[in-house]
């Protein structure tokens, strides 16, 4: 088993002694405590859930300075981004608090009895939603607040009435521990059981595998690599009793810049795009990794503009030394598969330089290797000879969190076909701006066909994330006392 | 590859020559035709979808006599049940037609732009639902109409905008063909592509496996055994690009008869229960296979009443000779695992006699083998010494389509705990009547934790079945022309 270290992300040096890895007995005890807390928490009121979530948000804000400093040390993401991410995290906690307070987890679909024989006649039925049980939450490396210990998965699961056992990401173990200690104090101050929010950690895969295999775990939520997510999903399915597994995996986020858009404001778009490709050192699941361009003079003008805008930017160091290595390997694999480098920023130390590559649509469609996600500040231009070929490129991508289309401003048959092709493979289709930056709203859908998500009908960001942890249960001919309790036998 | 025969279910004799098994080329051509029909059908209006579904219902009714006669020959389910099932099937088709006509597949969640910086500010977003694409539909043996060629899965997928390729069940191949020919004529009469509804068939597993592996298949829907469903789900997950798989598998449907209910009307309940256990020769996914009773004088009186009521009933022959054999094997496995037979109806030919067995709660919780579904007219009594032990029995069951509780008429802490335990493992909890008979309504939930379903958040019966085939897609900053088209680029 690998030892668990906290690393300085800018130097790659370990910060102090190795941290404790959760033992099998500790993991079991943490899940048992979550299970023990489940029955009461499933019966908690919306106000009780809201109070917990709001106190967690307050607790994070009260320690903002220490949290951001430690996060910056372990991730190198910088204080501006990290303060913004902390804002988003507390916003999420309070938004799910509001939903719980409004009673959304307790919504009932009432279906009164209809007299007569079937199929028309039927008994009185009511549809409720039951929290699933303890959720195993696998934190992401690239959002040390918003997709980590007290991130959106934890907030939505708690709002739904489920305890959570967090598998901390080994990329920021000290921050995970500090965040967890805030949660522990909040639970204690509210007189809630410590088992409601658990934490396990370790550098290797063993801890996560033991967690998802635990018979008392009722669901999994994961944000990370396709390989890691697929492995955990396979574990979830291989259990004697498989459980729902919500994995948000890799995505290459095609961005289609049509000639009309480039003609109108190519230079401005080049600058916007260069910023999106390098934002957070390209370490976003919505990073635009694929630029789909149509041959013509506008594209010929745009590509060097983009290369120049990109070349002027030097991203900050990556989250971890291993990621830098994986980034270089990924870029080289593209070159080996036939992509031509247009810009090869040299980078410095753990900070890679921006990379821009180009390949023909035909080659892209042939070569599976070119559809892999390269996590970091890199993008691959795919040159198409027609809008029809753009559709073929999208079909080859097959699954993505987002597709962005610039320039489909007129209602033409070609634009409609292009939008249909985009909607067929993506969870979100943008017509302006860049895909990085995922709003926490009612209509957000952060998911998509494989490999974007293991559960493309669900979202890990936005209000509907709550529904992942509630299972419909129909009550038929419920007795009067249960109806008076609105279907909650608590 | 096994040859495909139509069998007389009452005699086990083949009806004529072997039927053609779909070749790999035919399967591919059927899926290709479905794929070719997808883009247009996804763009069809609610009125167009409703017209197709209503004409399919009309087409079934126009041939009711021939369909029921052929179904009876191949399944032995009898004309009363089969006419009722045909009514349910046309009811489903028309109900999904109404939903399509009302525009339910095209519902939009509008999320206007909010000014300001994130996390509060966000662009204009709209949530739509996209049909998934061609659906592979695996028909069930035990519902030759309602879960077969034009059953609920097909109706809901078509209403959602998805073409369907049906894998016919080999238990009623001639009926499947006759039903399919009705569909073919309806499609032709409406000028719709034949590819919208395809049929493939074969006696072995090869045809189904090739179908679910086909790269142009976008989802699977299955009703049948745990083994068969788990194998197909594994295939769906092993694809280079996994797809959603909705499998409704085995269920043992615990029925808890509390002493108060038995004291009030034990004889009447014994008769009701005996009818439910033997209905359709016990070949229902909601058949009450587990009777959970609490030790005491009421139970001591009830058990012989039930054995007597059951012993007076002789079920009709099973759907197929292989099922009869599996039934006998399943009952024997229970005896081998420690269950004591209370009634061993001898049966005649392919018609099994009713079986009633009994075991202690402790033994039931220890022995996994006693939690297997025995498909047929059999039920296992589990004797508990307390209501707390009833909860332990439910926890051991872990997943079921239904749980029925008789006698929880007062609001007590014990009853509330029991209902919570039931809601934790079931998709539907009944407080009166028997679980057989699944109403097609808005609040129905026909699904549950494994092994009841591979997708416990979804239902295969009722209005929400439609949602299985629609994937959320968020449109961000959609252009005016697309908003004018209500987000449908058609």
From TrEMBL, chains A, B:
<keyword id="KW-0560">Oxidoreductase</keyword>
<dbReference type="InterPro" id="IPR044151">
    <property type="entry name" value="ALDH_KGSADH"/>
</dbReference>
<feature type="domain" description="Aldehyde dehydrogenase">
    <location>
        <begin position="9"/>
        <end position="416"/>
    </location>
</feature>
<protein>
    <submittedName>
        <fullName>Aldehyde dehydrogenase (NADP(+))</fullName>
    </submittedName>
</protein>
<dbReference type="InterPro" id="IPR050740">
    <property type="entry name" value="Aldehyde_DH_Superfamily"/>
</dbReference>
<dbReference type="Pfam" id="PF00171">
    <property type="entry name" value="Aldedh"/>
</dbReference>
<dbReference type="InterPro" id="IPR016163">
    <property type="entry name" value="Ald_DH_C"/>
</dbReference>
<dbReference type="InterPro" id="IPR015590">
    <property type="entry name" value="Aldehyde_DH_dom"/>
</dbReference>
<dbReference type="InterPro" id="IPR016161">
    <property type="entry name" value="Ald_DH/histidinol_DH"/>
</dbReference>
<dbReference type="InterPro" id="IPR016162">
    <property type="entry name" value="Ald_DH_N"/>
</dbReference>
């Amino acid at each position: 088993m690998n030892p668990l270290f906290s690393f300085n992300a800018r130097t790659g040096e370990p910060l102090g002694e190795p941290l404790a890895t959760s033992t099998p007995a500790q993991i079991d005890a943490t899940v048992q405590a979550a299970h023990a807390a489940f029955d009461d928490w499933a019966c908690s009121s919306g106000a009780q859930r809201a109070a917990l979530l709001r106190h967690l948000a307050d607790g994070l804000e009260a320690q903002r300075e220490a949290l951001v400093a430690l996060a910056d040390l372990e991730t190198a993401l910088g204080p501006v981004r990290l303060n913004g991410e902390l804002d988003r995290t507390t916003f999420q906690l309070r938004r799910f608090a509001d939903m719980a307070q409004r009673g959304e987890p307790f919504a009932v679909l009432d279906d009164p009895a209809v007299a007569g024989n079937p199929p028309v006649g039927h008994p009185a039925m009511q549809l409720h939603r039951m929290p699933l049980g303890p959720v195993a939450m696998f934190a992401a490396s690239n959002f040390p607040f918003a997709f980590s210990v007290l991130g959106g998965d934890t907030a939505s699961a708690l709002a739904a009435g489920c305890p959570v056992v967090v598998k901390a990401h080994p990329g920021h173990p000290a921050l995970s521990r500090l965040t967890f200690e805030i949660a522990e104090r909040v639970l204690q101050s509210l007189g809630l059981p410590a088992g409601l929010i658990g934490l396990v950690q370790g550098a290797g895969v063993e801890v996560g595998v033991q967690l998802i295999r635990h018979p008392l775990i009722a669901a999994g939520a994961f944000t990370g690599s396709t390989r890691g997510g697929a492995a955990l999903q396979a574990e979830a399915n291989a259990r004697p009793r498989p459980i729902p597994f919500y994995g948000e995996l890799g995505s290459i986020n095609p961005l289609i810049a049509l000639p009309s858009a480039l003609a109108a404001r190519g230079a401005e778009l080049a600058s916007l795009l260069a910023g999106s490709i390098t934002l957070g050192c390209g370490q976003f699941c919505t990073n635009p990794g694929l630029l789909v361009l149509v041959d013509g003079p506008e594209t010929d003008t745009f590509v060097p503009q983009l290369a120049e805008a990109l070349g002027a930017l030097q991203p900050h160091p990556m989250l971890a030394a291993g990621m830098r290595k994986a980034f270089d390997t990924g870029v080289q694999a593209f070159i080996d598969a036939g992509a031509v480098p247009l810009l090869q920023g040299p980078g410095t130390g753990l900070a890679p330089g921006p990379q821009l590559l180009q390949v023909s649509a035909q080659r892209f469609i042939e070569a599976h290797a070119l559809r892999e996600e390269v996590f970091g500040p890199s993008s691959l231009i795919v040159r198409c000879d027609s809008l029809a070929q753009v559709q073929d490129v999208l079909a080859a991508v097959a699954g993505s969190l987002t597709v962005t289309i610039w320039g489909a401003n007129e209602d033409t048959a070609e634009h409609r076909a292009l939008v249909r092709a985009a909607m067929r493979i993506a969870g979100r289709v943008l017509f302006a701006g860049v895909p990085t930056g995922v709003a926490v709203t009612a209509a957000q859908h952060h998911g998509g066909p494989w490999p974007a998500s293991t559960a493309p009908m669900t979202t890990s960001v936005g209000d509907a994330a709550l529904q992942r942890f509630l299972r419909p249960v129909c009550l038929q001919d419920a007795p009067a006392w249960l109806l008076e309790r609105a279907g909650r036998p608590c």
